[in-house]
Amino acid sequence: MAYDPQNVFAKILRGEIPSAKVLETDGALAFLDIGPVNKGHVLVIPKVEAATLSELPDDASAHVGALLPRLCRAVREATGAEGLNVIVNHGEVAGQTVHHVHWHIIPRFRGDAVRWPWP
Ligand code: 5GP
């Protein structure tokens, strides 16, 4: 799908709108989700223009991949989560609403109210 440089994550990357940063590298940025489905819900995005995972170049994908284990540890440490969901919604039909590829890292606690798939 065509990449819209006015999407909110592109604006976050350009510093045009604020975000609560969690971790940042040359190739990827992790920040708190503005509408968390659970305490400590984090998003991680590559610093390239790709609307979906299918459109992400291998080298950009590697930047996110390298960050994921560290992020999972940091989120578990910060929230005390017993488990995590690491999820990519690919395309509108699959629930993607922001068309800059992103990974959700969602802390999970036994008995919590998170339901999958969420609306
Ligand atoms: P999607 O449904 O595309 O997989 O997920 C998009 C996510 O982006 C949602 O969980 C939503 O809460 C989050 N989101 C949308 N706009 C903003 C924003 O301006 N800032 C932040 N931090 N998160 C956002």
From TrEMBL:
What are the GO BP annotations of this UniProt entry? nucleotide metabolic process
Q: Where is the HIT domain?
A: 8-115
Mind listing the GO molecular function terms for this protein? catalytic activity
Q: Where is this motif: Histidine triad motif?
A: 100-104
Residues in the active site? 102 (tele-amp-histidine intermediate)
Transmembrane residues, as ranges? Answer: none
Q: What is this protein called?
A: HIT family protein
Organism, by scientific name, is Tautonia sociabilis
